[in-house]
Design a protein that fits this description.
Oligomer: single chain
Strand order of the largest sheet: 1-2-4-3
Shape: elongated
Structural class: mainly alpha
Number of helices: 26
Order of helices and strands: HHHHHHHHHHHHHHHHHEHHHEHEEHHHHH
Number of strands: 4
Helix content: 55-70%
Protein backbone atom coordinates (compact mmCIF):
# COMPACT_ATOMS: atom_id res chain seq x y z
CA UNK A 1 0.00 0.00 0.00
CA UNK A 2 2.80 2.41 0.96
CA UNK A 3 4.67 1.54 -2.24
CA UNK A 4 1.54 2.22 -4.31
CA UNK A 5 1.05 5.61 -2.65
CA UNK A 6 4.72 6.50 -3.19
CA UNK A 7 4.43 5.66 -6.91
CA UNK A 8 1.23 7.68 -7.18
CA UNK A 9 2.86 10.63 -5.42
CA UNK A 10 5.92 10.37 -7.68
CA UNK A 11 3.72 10.25 -10.79
CA UNK A 12 1.83 13.34 -9.61
CA UNK A 13 5.11 15.21 -9.16
CA UNK A 14 6.27 14.17 -12.64
CA UNK A 15 3.03 15.29 -14.29
CA UNK A 16 3.00 18.54 -12.35
CA UNK A 17 6.60 19.34 -13.29
CA UNK A 18 5.99 18.31 -16.90
CA UNK A 19 3.15 20.84 -16.95
CA UNK A 20 5.57 23.52 -15.76
CA UNK A 21 7.94 22.64 -18.62
CA UNK A 22 5.07 22.89 -21.11
CA UNK A 23 4.14 26.30 -19.71
CA UNK A 24 7.75 27.42 -20.11
CA UNK A 25 7.74 26.31 -23.75
CA UNK A 26 4.43 28.09 -24.40
CA UNK A 27 5.72 31.26 -22.74
CA UNK A 28 8.38 31.41 -25.43
CA UNK A 29 6.40 29.93 -28.30
CA UNK A 30 3.34 32.15 -27.93
CA UNK A 31 5.21 35.44 -28.04
CA UNK A 32 3.94 37.76 -30.80
CA UNK A 33 5.34 37.58 -34.31
CA UNK A 34 8.60 39.54 -34.37
CA UNK A 35 10.59 38.08 -37.28
CA UNK A 36 11.52 40.35 -40.14
CA UNK A 37 12.15 37.70 -42.80
CA UNK A 38 9.00 35.62 -42.62
CA UNK A 39 7.03 38.29 -44.53
CA UNK A 40 8.85 37.60 -47.77
CA UNK A 41 8.50 33.87 -47.14
CA UNK A 42 4.73 34.30 -47.14
CA UNK A 43 4.82 36.44 -50.28
CA UNK A 44 7.04 33.86 -52.00
CA UNK A 45 4.59 31.12 -50.99
CA UNK A 46 1.74 33.16 -52.38
CA UNK A 47 3.49 33.67 -55.72
CA UNK A 48 4.46 29.99 -55.86
CA UNK A 49 0.82 29.04 -55.32
CA UNK A 50 -0.45 31.49 -57.94
CA UNK A 51 2.16 30.47 -60.49
CA UNK A 52 1.71 26.76 -59.72
CA UNK A 53 5.46 26.35 -60.06
CA UNK A 54 8.57 26.93 -58.00
CA UNK A 55 9.82 30.51 -58.34
CA UNK A 56 13.40 30.50 -59.60
CA UNK A 57 13.86 34.21 -60.36
CA UNK A 58 14.17 37.13 -57.97
CA UNK A 59 10.86 38.98 -58.20
CA UNK A 60 11.19 41.35 -55.29
CA UNK A 61 14.47 43.28 -55.56
CA UNK A 62 15.84 45.98 -57.83
CA UNK A 63 19.38 44.93 -56.96
CA UNK A 64 19.55 41.15 -56.89
CA UNK A 65 23.00 40.37 -58.21
CA UNK A 66 21.91 36.92 -59.38
CA UNK A 67 18.89 36.85 -61.68
CA UNK A 68 18.46 33.18 -60.82
CA UNK A 69 17.23 32.63 -57.28
CA UNK A 70 17.89 29.09 -56.06
CA UNK A 71 15.87 29.17 -52.86
CA UNK A 72 15.61 25.75 -51.26
CA UNK A 73 13.15 26.79 -48.55
CA UNK A 74 10.30 27.13 -51.05
CA UNK A 75 8.36 24.36 -49.27
CA UNK A 76 8.26 26.23 -45.98
CA UNK A 77 7.29 29.43 -47.83
CA UNK A 78 4.32 27.63 -49.33
CA UNK A 79 3.49 26.11 -45.94
CA UNK A 80 3.66 29.47 -44.14
CA UNK A 81 1.50 31.05 -46.85
CA UNK A 82 -1.14 28.34 -46.43
CA UNK A 83 -1.19 28.77 -42.63
CA UNK A 84 -1.42 32.56 -42.98
CA UNK A 85 -4.13 32.30 -45.63
CA UNK A 86 -6.24 29.95 -43.51
CA UNK A 87 -5.65 31.27 -39.99
CA UNK A 88 -3.83 34.60 -40.26
CA UNK A 89 -1.24 35.79 -37.75
CA UNK A 90 -2.74 33.73 -34.84
CA UNK A 91 -2.11 30.54 -36.79
CA UNK A 92 1.55 31.41 -37.34
CA UNK A 93 2.05 32.11 -33.63
CA UNK A 94 0.43 28.79 -32.74
CA UNK A 95 2.53 27.00 -35.35
CA UNK A 96 5.88 28.13 -33.94
CA UNK A 97 4.71 27.27 -30.42
CA UNK A 98 3.62 23.81 -31.59
CA UNK A 99 6.91 23.07 -33.39
CA UNK A 100 8.90 24.12 -30.31
CA UNK A 101 6.72 21.99 -28.04
CA UNK A 102 6.98 18.95 -30.34
CA UNK A 103 10.77 19.31 -30.44
CA UNK A 104 10.96 19.27 -26.63
CA UNK A 105 8.56 16.29 -26.55
CA UNK A 106 10.85 14.49 -29.02
CA UNK A 107 13.81 15.08 -26.68
CA UNK A 108 11.73 13.82 -23.74
CA UNK A 109 10.84 10.70 -25.76
CA UNK A 110 14.52 10.08 -26.49
CA UNK A 111 15.42 10.42 -22.83
CA UNK A 112 12.66 8.26 -21.35
CA UNK A 113 11.53 5.79 -24.02
CA UNK A 114 14.81 5.24 -25.83
CA UNK A 115 17.56 5.82 -23.26
CA UNK A 116 15.62 5.03 -20.06
CA UNK A 117 17.17 8.10 -18.46
CA UNK A 118 16.50 8.71 -14.75
CA UNK A 119 13.67 11.19 -14.22
CA UNK A 120 15.86 13.71 -12.44
CA UNK A 121 18.41 13.89 -15.26
CA UNK A 122 15.63 14.01 -17.87
CA UNK A 123 13.96 17.02 -16.25
CA UNK A 124 17.29 18.76 -15.75
CA UNK A 125 18.28 18.35 -19.40
CA UNK A 126 14.86 19.45 -20.69
CA UNK A 127 14.77 22.43 -18.33
CA UNK A 128 18.14 23.56 -19.68
CA UNK A 129 17.25 22.83 -23.30
CA UNK A 130 14.12 25.02 -23.35
CA UNK A 131 15.80 28.39 -22.64
CA UNK A 132 18.92 27.33 -24.56
CA UNK A 133 16.92 26.70 -27.74
CA UNK A 134 14.08 29.23 -27.59
CA UNK A 135 15.83 32.15 -29.27
CA UNK A 136 15.82 30.41 -32.68
CA UNK A 137 12.28 29.02 -32.50
CA UNK A 138 10.74 31.91 -34.36
CA UNK A 139 8.50 32.12 -37.40
CA UNK A 140 11.15 31.04 -39.90
CA UNK A 141 12.06 27.85 -41.82
CA UNK A 142 15.01 27.03 -39.57
CA UNK A 143 12.68 25.62 -36.91
CA UNK A 144 12.26 22.56 -39.13
CA UNK A 145 16.05 22.03 -39.04
CA UNK A 146 15.73 21.47 -35.29
CA UNK A 147 12.48 19.52 -35.14
CA UNK A 148 13.14 17.06 -37.99
CA UNK A 149 16.68 16.07 -36.84
CA UNK A 150 15.16 15.28 -33.42
CA UNK A 151 12.66 12.98 -35.18
CA UNK A 152 15.47 11.42 -37.22
CA UNK A 153 17.38 10.61 -34.03
CA UNK A 154 14.29 8.81 -32.74
CA UNK A 155 14.09 6.77 -35.97
CA UNK A 156 17.79 5.82 -35.76
CA UNK A 157 17.63 4.91 -32.09
CA UNK A 158 14.54 2.76 -32.62
CA UNK A 159 16.41 1.00 -35.42
CA UNK A 160 19.38 0.43 -33.10
CA UNK A 161 16.99 -1.22 -30.65
CA UNK A 162 15.50 -3.23 -33.56
CA UNK A 163 12.11 -1.61 -33.01
CA UNK A 164 11.66 -0.04 -36.43
CA UNK A 165 12.99 0.64 -39.90
CA UNK A 166 15.74 3.18 -40.37
CA UNK A 167 14.50 4.09 -43.82
CA UNK A 168 11.93 6.54 -42.46
CA UNK A 169 14.85 8.97 -42.32
CA UNK A 170 14.76 9.30 -46.11
CA UNK A 171 11.25 10.85 -46.47
CA UNK A 172 11.94 13.02 -43.44
CA UNK A 173 15.12 14.25 -45.14
CA UNK A 174 13.24 14.88 -48.38
CA UNK A 175 10.76 17.09 -46.50
CA UNK A 176 13.52 19.00 -44.75
CA UNK A 177 15.46 19.42 -48.01
CA UNK A 178 12.57 21.44 -49.41
CA UNK A 179 11.77 23.25 -46.17
CA UNK A 180 15.20 24.46 -45.07
CA UNK A 181 18.73 24.28 -46.37
CA UNK A 182 20.00 23.13 -43.00
CA UNK A 183 19.27 19.63 -44.30
CA UNK A 184 23.00 18.89 -44.65
CA UNK A 185 23.08 18.01 -40.97
CA UNK A 186 21.05 14.84 -41.69
CA UNK A 187 23.50 12.97 -43.96
CA UNK A 188 26.21 13.91 -41.46
CA UNK A 189 24.20 12.23 -38.68
CA UNK A 190 23.63 9.12 -40.80
CA UNK A 191 27.31 8.94 -41.76
CA UNK A 192 28.27 9.04 -38.08
CA UNK A 193 25.77 6.28 -37.35
CA UNK A 194 27.07 4.08 -40.15
CA UNK A 195 30.69 4.72 -39.15
CA UNK A 196 29.92 3.88 -35.51
CA UNK A 197 28.88 0.35 -36.54
CA UNK A 198 32.45 -0.50 -37.55
CA UNK A 199 33.65 -3.49 -35.45
CA UNK A 200 36.56 -1.45 -34.10
CA UNK A 201 34.13 1.19 -32.83
CA UNK A 202 31.36 -1.10 -31.64
CA UNK A 203 31.81 -4.23 -29.60
CA UNK A 204 28.30 -5.31 -30.61
CA UNK A 205 29.09 -5.29 -34.37
CA UNK A 206 30.84 -7.87 -36.50
CA UNK A 207 30.48 -5.82 -39.68
CA UNK A 208 29.35 -2.35 -40.66
CA UNK A 209 25.61 -1.84 -40.99
CA UNK A 210 24.31 -2.19 -44.54
CA UNK A 211 21.07 -0.45 -43.52
CA UNK A 212 23.12 2.38 -42.05
CA UNK A 213 25.06 2.85 -45.29
CA UNK A 214 21.94 2.73 -47.47
CA UNK A 215 20.20 5.22 -45.18
CA UNK A 216 23.23 7.50 -45.39
CA UNK A 217 23.22 7.23 -49.19
CA UNK A 218 19.45 7.79 -49.31
CA UNK A 219 19.54 10.89 -47.12
CA UNK A 220 22.45 12.30 -49.12
CA UNK A 221 20.48 11.95 -52.35
CA UNK A 222 17.33 13.27 -50.67
CA UNK A 223 19.23 16.37 -49.51
CA UNK A 224 19.68 17.41 -53.13
CA UNK A 225 16.23 16.31 -54.28
CA UNK A 226 14.96 19.85 -54.68
CA UNK A 227 13.98 21.86 -57.76
CA UNK A 228 17.44 23.44 -57.61
CA UNK A 229 19.64 20.41 -56.99
CA UNK A 230 23.17 21.17 -55.79
CA UNK A 231 22.88 24.93 -56.36
CA UNK A 232 20.45 25.26 -53.46
CA UNK A 233 23.16 24.23 -50.98
CA UNK A 234 25.81 26.54 -52.41
CA UNK A 235 24.41 29.63 -50.69
CA UNK A 236 24.64 28.07 -47.23
CA UNK A 237 28.22 26.99 -47.77
CA UNK A 238 29.13 30.43 -49.12
CA UNK A 239 27.47 32.26 -46.25
CA UNK A 240 29.10 30.06 -43.62
CA UNK A 241 32.51 30.62 -45.11
CA UNK A 242 32.42 34.18 -46.45
CA UNK A 243 33.85 36.60 -43.92
CA UNK A 244 32.11 39.67 -45.34
CA UNK A 245 28.69 38.15 -44.69
CA UNK A 246 29.67 36.75 -41.32
CA UNK A 247 30.96 40.14 -40.21
CA UNK A 248 27.64 41.87 -40.97
CA UNK A 249 25.08 39.24 -39.98
CA UNK A 250 25.20 38.68 -36.22
CA UNK A 251 23.50 35.30 -36.40
CA UNK A 252 26.26 34.04 -38.71
CA UNK A 253 29.07 35.69 -36.79
CA UNK A 254 31.86 33.39 -35.61
CA UNK A 255 31.09 31.93 -32.21
CA UNK A 256 32.44 33.77 -29.20
CA UNK A 257 31.74 33.70 -25.49
CA UNK A 258 30.01 37.09 -25.75
CA UNK A 259 27.61 36.03 -28.53
CA UNK A 260 26.82 32.80 -26.69
CA UNK A 261 26.13 34.60 -23.42
CA UNK A 262 23.90 37.13 -25.15
CA UNK A 263 21.83 34.71 -27.22
CA UNK A 264 21.88 31.37 -25.42
CA UNK A 265 23.73 31.42 -22.07
CA UNK A 266 22.35 28.05 -20.98
CA UNK A 267 24.09 26.43 -23.94
CA UNK A 268 27.13 26.75 -21.68
CA UNK A 269 25.48 24.23 -19.35
CA UNK A 270 25.26 21.76 -22.25
CA UNK A 271 28.87 22.45 -23.15
CA UNK A 272 29.85 21.72 -19.55
CA UNK A 273 27.81 18.52 -19.38
CA UNK A 274 29.28 17.42 -22.72
CA UNK A 275 32.85 17.99 -21.59
CA UNK A 276 32.18 16.06 -18.38
CA UNK A 277 30.56 13.27 -20.40
CA UNK A 278 33.70 12.96 -22.57
CA UNK A 279 35.64 12.10 -19.41
CA UNK A 280 33.50 8.97 -18.97
CA UNK A 281 33.51 7.83 -22.59
CA UNK A 282 34.27 4.23 -23.49
CA UNK A 283 35.27 4.23 -27.20
CA UNK A 284 33.72 0.89 -28.16
CA UNK A 285 30.51 1.68 -26.31
CA UNK A 286 29.95 5.35 -27.02
CA UNK A 287 31.30 5.91 -30.57
CA UNK A 288 27.84 6.84 -31.92
CA UNK A 289 27.13 9.26 -29.06
CA UNK A 290 30.62 10.79 -29.26
CA UNK A 291 30.23 11.37 -32.99
CA UNK A 292 26.91 13.17 -32.47
CA UNK A 293 28.36 15.36 -29.71
CA UNK A 294 31.36 16.31 -31.86
CA UNK A 295 28.98 17.18 -34.71
CA UNK A 296 26.98 19.34 -32.29
CA UNK A 297 30.11 21.20 -31.23
CA UNK A 298 31.21 21.70 -34.84
CA UNK A 299 27.84 23.09 -35.93
CA UNK A 300 27.83 25.45 -32.97
CA UNK A 301 31.26 26.73 -33.98
CA UNK A 302 29.83 27.87 -37.34
CA UNK A 303 27.58 30.48 -35.75
CA UNK A 304 25.19 31.18 -32.91
CA UNK A 305 22.16 30.34 -35.06
CA UNK A 306 23.14 26.67 -34.79
CA UNK A 307 23.04 26.64 -30.97
CA UNK A 308 19.67 24.79 -30.68
CA UNK A 309 21.24 21.75 -32.30
CA UNK A 310 23.65 21.42 -29.37
CA UNK A 311 21.12 19.93 -26.89
CA UNK A 312 19.69 17.65 -29.59
CA UNK A 313 23.08 16.24 -30.55
CA UNK A 314 24.68 16.06 -27.09
CA UNK A 315 21.85 14.56 -25.03
CA UNK A 316 22.64 11.01 -26.29
CA UNK A 317 26.23 11.25 -24.97
CA UNK A 318 25.24 12.93 -21.71
CA UNK A 319 22.62 10.35 -20.77
CA UNK A 320 24.76 7.41 -21.96
CA UNK A 321 27.65 8.40 -19.71
CA UNK A 322 26.14 10.29 -16.79
CA UNK A 323 22.75 8.63 -16.70
CA UNK A 324 24.17 5.30 -15.55
CA UNK A 325 24.91 6.68 -12.10
CA UNK A 326 21.51 5.81 -10.70
CA UNK A 327 22.60 6.45 -7.13
CA UNK A 328 23.10 10.12 -7.99
CA UNK A 329 19.80 10.63 -9.79
CA UNK A 330 17.46 8.31 -7.91
CA UNK A 331 18.27 8.92 -4.26
CA UNK A 332 17.22 11.65 -1.83
CA UNK A 333 17.86 14.51 -4.24
CA UNK A 334 15.70 13.08 -7.01
CA UNK A 335 12.48 14.97 -6.23
CA UNK A 336 14.35 18.15 -5.45
CA UNK A 337 16.18 18.03 -8.81
CA UNK A 338 12.94 17.36 -10.70
CA UNK A 339 10.96 20.15 -9.02
CA UNK A 340 13.83 22.64 -9.04
CA UNK A 341 14.54 22.01 -12.72
CA UNK A 342 10.91 22.52 -13.75
CA UNK A 343 10.58 25.66 -11.64
CA UNK A 344 13.87 26.97 -13.00
CA UNK A 345 12.66 26.60 -16.60
CA UNK A 346 9.40 28.39 -15.84
CA UNK A 347 11.04 31.20 -13.86
CA UNK A 348 13.63 31.81 -16.60
CA UNK A 349 10.91 31.90 -19.25
CA UNK A 350 8.82 34.39 -17.27
CA UNK A 351 11.79 36.60 -16.41
CA UNK A 352 13.10 36.73 -19.99
CA UNK A 353 12.46 40.23 -21.39
CA UNK A 354 9.97 39.27 -24.08
CA UNK A 355 6.57 40.70 -25.03
CA UNK A 356 3.69 38.94 -23.24
CA UNK A 357 2.12 36.02 -25.12
CA UNK A 358 -0.29 37.17 -27.81
CA UNK A 359 -1.62 35.82 -31.10
CA UNK A 360 -0.59 39.00 -32.92
CA UNK A 361 2.32 41.06 -34.17
CA UNK A 362 4.88 42.39 -31.72
CA UNK A 363 3.95 46.01 -30.88
CA UNK A 364 5.92 48.68 -32.78
CA UNK A 365 8.18 46.05 -34.28
CA UNK A 366 7.22 46.86 -37.86
CA UNK A 367 6.76 50.17 -39.69
CA UNK A 368 2.99 49.76 -39.82
CA UNK A 369 2.13 53.46 -39.60
CA UNK A 370 4.71 54.33 -42.24
CA UNK A 371 3.21 51.69 -44.48
CA UNK A 372 -0.24 53.23 -43.98
CA UNK A 373 1.28 56.57 -45.02
CA UNK A 374 2.69 55.05 -48.23
CA UNK A 375 -0.68 53.45 -49.01
CA UNK A 376 -2.49 56.72 -48.34
CA UNK A 377 -0.16 58.57 -50.69
CA UNK A 378 -0.66 55.88 -53.31
CA UNK A 379 -4.29 56.91 -53.69
CA UNK A 380 -3.41 60.65 -53.80
CA UNK A 381 0.11 61.41 -54.90
CA UNK A 382 2.07 58.15 -55.08
CA UNK A 383 5.72 57.95 -54.14
CA UNK A 384 7.63 57.60 -57.39
CA UNK A 385 10.80 55.74 -58.19
CA UNK A 386 12.69 53.03 -56.33
CA UNK A 387 13.30 52.99 -52.60
CA UNK A 388 16.44 52.40 -50.58
CA UNK A 389 15.13 50.63 -47.52
CA UNK A 390 16.36 49.48 -44.15
CA UNK A 391 17.68 45.91 -44.36
CA UNK A 392 15.23 44.48 -41.85
CA UNK A 393 12.27 46.37 -43.33
CA UNK A 394 12.77 44.58 -46.65
CA UNK A 395 10.57 41.57 -46.00
CA UNK A 396 7.73 43.71 -44.63
CA UNK A 397 7.89 45.97 -47.69
CA UNK A 398 7.86 42.96 -50.01
CA UNK A 399 4.76 41.57 -48.32
CA UNK A 400 2.79 44.82 -48.30
CA UNK A 401 4.06 46.95 -51.19
CA UNK A 402 5.22 44.57 -53.90
CA UNK A 403 4.69 44.66 -56.89
CA UNK A 404 4.15 48.44 -56.76
CA UNK A 405 7.57 48.82 -55.16
CA UNK A 406 10.60 46.57 -55.08
CA UNK A 407 13.19 46.57 -52.31
CA UNK A 408 16.81 47.64 -52.42
CA UNK A 409 17.77 44.88 -49.97
CA UNK A 410 16.09 42.38 -47.66
CA UNK A 411 16.84 39.36 -45.47
CA UNK A 412 17.49 36.95 -48.33
CA UNK A 413 21.17 37.83 -47.89
CA UNK A 414 23.36 35.23 -49.64
CA UNK A 415 20.63 33.80 -51.87
CA UNK A 416 20.09 37.06 -53.78
CA UNK A 417 22.79 39.56 -52.84
CA UNK A 418 26.48 38.85 -53.06
CA UNK A 419 28.99 39.78 -50.37
CA UNK A 420 30.24 42.90 -52.20
CA UNK A 421 26.74 44.33 -52.44
CA UNK A 422 26.12 43.58 -48.79
CA UNK A 423 29.29 45.45 -47.89
CA UNK A 424 28.15 48.40 -50.00
CA UNK A 425 24.80 48.47 -48.20
CA UNK A 426 26.63 48.60 -44.87
CA UNK A 427 28.22 51.90 -46.03
CA UNK A 428 25.55 53.46 -48.22
CA UNK A 429 23.70 55.28 -45.44
CA UNK A 430 26.90 56.42 -43.77
CA UNK A 431 28.63 57.93 -46.79
CA UNK A 432 26.82 60.67 -48.80
CA UNK A 433 28.93 59.96 -51.88
CA UNK A 434 27.98 56.28 -51.97
CA UNK A 435 24.33 57.21 -51.34
CA UNK A 436 24.29 59.66 -54.26
CA UNK A 437 26.02 57.12 -56.50
CA UNK A 438 23.53 54.37 -55.64
CA UNK A 439 20.60 56.76 -56.00
CA UNK A 440 21.71 57.66 -59.53
CA UNK A 441 22.59 54.11 -60.48
CA UNK A 442 19.33 52.51 -59.28
CA UNK A 443 16.86 55.38 -59.74
CA UNK A 444 16.35 55.71 -55.98
CA UNK A 445 13.88 58.49 -55.24
CA UNK A 446 12.98 57.80 -51.61
CA UNK A 447 14.39 56.24 -48.45
CA UNK A 448 12.41 53.99 -46.08
CA UNK A 449 14.51 53.86 -42.91
CA UNK A 450 14.36 52.86 -39.27
CA UNK A 451 14.00 55.68 -36.75
CA UNK A 452 16.90 55.10 -34.39
CA UNK A 453 18.53 58.29 -33.03
CA UNK A 454 21.63 56.33 -32.03
CA UNK A 455 22.56 55.90 -35.72
CA UNK A 456 24.48 59.18 -35.73
CA UNK A 457 26.43 58.14 -38.83
CA UNK A 458 23.25 59.01 -40.75
CA UNK A 459 23.14 62.59 -39.47
CA UNK A 460 24.29 63.78 -42.89
CA UNK A 461 20.81 63.00 -44.23
CA UNK A 462 19.37 65.85 -42.17
CA UNK A 463 22.05 68.25 -43.37
CA UNK A 464 21.89 67.23 -47.02
CA UNK A 465 19.56 69.47 -49.02
CA UNK A 466 19.28 66.75 -51.65
CA UNK A 467 16.97 64.83 -49.28
CA UNK A 468 13.82 65.97 -47.49
CA UNK A 469 12.17 64.23 -44.57
CA UNK A 470 8.43 63.87 -45.22
CA UNK A 471 7.39 61.27 -42.63
CA UNK A 472 8.51 60.50 -39.06
CA UNK A 473 7.02 58.10 -36.53
CA UNK A 474 8.39 56.10 -33.63
CA UNK A 475 9.51 53.27 -35.94
CA UNK A 476 10.31 54.70 -39.34
CA UNK A 477 11.43 57.68 -41.40
CA UNK A 478 10.73 58.44 -45.05
CA UNK A 479 12.92 60.81 -47.05
CA UNK A 480 12.47 61.83 -50.68
CA UNK A 481 14.87 63.46 -53.14
CA UNK A 482 14.21 67.15 -52.82
CA UNK A 483 14.44 67.92 -56.52
CA UNK A 484 13.55 64.48 -57.87
CA UNK A 485 10.37 62.78 -58.99
CA UNK A 486 8.83 63.34 -55.55
CA UNK A 487 9.52 67.08 -55.41
CA UNK A 488 5.79 67.94 -54.93
CA UNK A 489 5.73 65.69 -51.83
CA UNK A 490 8.91 67.31 -50.51
CA UNK A 491 7.39 70.75 -50.88
CA UNK A 492 4.02 69.80 -49.39
CA UNK A 493 5.03 67.42 -46.59
CA UNK A 494 8.66 68.23 -45.86
CA UNK A 495 9.79 68.88 -42.30
CA UNK A 496 11.29 72.36 -42.04
CA UNK A 497 13.83 72.25 -39.25
CA UNK A 498 13.63 69.31 -36.81
CA UNK A 499 16.12 66.54 -37.64
CA UNK A 500 15.69 62.94 -36.40
CA UNK A 501 19.40 62.15 -36.35
CA UNK A 502 20.47 65.57 -35.00
CA UNK A 503 17.62 66.01 -32.56
CA UNK A 504 19.66 65.69 -29.36
CA UNK A 505 22.00 68.42 -30.53
CA UNK A 506 19.09 70.64 -31.54
CA UNK A 507 17.26 70.21 -28.23
CA UNK A 508 20.38 71.08 -26.27
CA UNK A 509 20.88 74.38 -28.15
CA UNK A 510 18.76 76.95 -26.30
CA UNK A 511 19.42 79.77 -28.80
CA UNK A 512 18.33 77.51 -31.65
CA UNK A 513 15.07 76.64 -29.87
CA UNK A 514 14.26 80.28 -29.05
CA UNK A 515 15.02 81.68 -32.48
CA UNK A 516 13.10 78.96 -34.37
CA UNK A 517 10.11 78.56 -32.09
CA UNK A 518 7.39 79.01 -34.73
CA UNK A 519 9.06 76.72 -37.27
CA UNK A 520 9.65 74.08 -34.60
CA UNK A 521 6.00 74.33 -33.55
CA UNK A 522 4.96 73.72 -37.15
CA UNK A 523 7.14 70.59 -37.27
CA UNK A 524 5.67 69.43 -33.96
CA UNK A 525 2.19 69.55 -35.48
CA UNK A 526 3.52 67.60 -38.46
CA UNK A 527 5.06 65.03 -36.11
CA UNK A 528 1.79 64.77 -34.18
CA UNK A 529 -0.08 64.13 -37.43
CA UNK A 530 2.36 61.39 -38.42
CA UNK A 531 2.25 59.64 -35.03
CA UNK A 532 0.47 61.26 -32.11
CA UNK A 533 1.86 58.65 -29.73
CA UNK A 534 5.48 59.12 -30.74
CA UNK A 535 7.53 59.39 -27.50
CA UNK A 536 9.82 61.86 -29.27
CA UNK A 537 6.93 64.29 -29.43
CA UNK A 538 6.62 64.46 -25.65
CA UNK A 539 10.39 64.95 -25.28
CA UNK A 540 10.44 67.89 -27.68
CA UNK A 541 7.43 69.56 -26.04
CA UNK A 542 8.93 69.13 -22.57
CA UNK A 543 12.20 70.76 -23.64
CA UNK A 544 10.34 73.64 -25.29
CA UNK A 545 8.29 74.18 -22.13
CA UNK A 546 11.47 74.44 -20.07
CA UNK A 547 13.05 76.86 -22.52
CA UNK A 548 10.04 79.15 -22.89
Amino acid sequence: MASSEAKSSHAAILWGCATLLVLAVLRYGLTPIAGYDFWWHIKLGEQTWLAQEVISKDLFSTNGVNSTWAYQDWGSALFFFAIHKLTGIPGLVLLKALIFLLTIIALAYLCKKIYNTPDALTFLLLALAIPAMEFRFTERPQIFSFFIPALILIVIERHRLKHGSIYWVIPLTLILANFHRGVLIVPAILFIYWLSTHPKLSSASTKMSVDGFLAFLGTTLASFSTPFGFSSIEGTLNLAGTSSFRANLSEWAPLSLDTLLQASPLSLAYLTFTLIAFLFVRPQKHAWQCGLAILGLLTLSRGIRMAPLLPILTIPLIVATLGIYKNVWQQRLEKMIIVTSALMALVISISTPLPPPALSLSPYRYPEKALDFVHAQHSKQPLKGNTLNEYHFGGYIIFHLWPDYKVYIDGRADTVYDADFFQKYARVLKDPKILNSEASKHSIEWLFLEYNPSLISRAHLDQNKDWTLIYWDRSALIYVRSAGANKPLAERLGYQILSPYNLDKQLSAEDFLKSNRETIQSDIEHLRKDDSGNPTLAIIEEVLTQVH
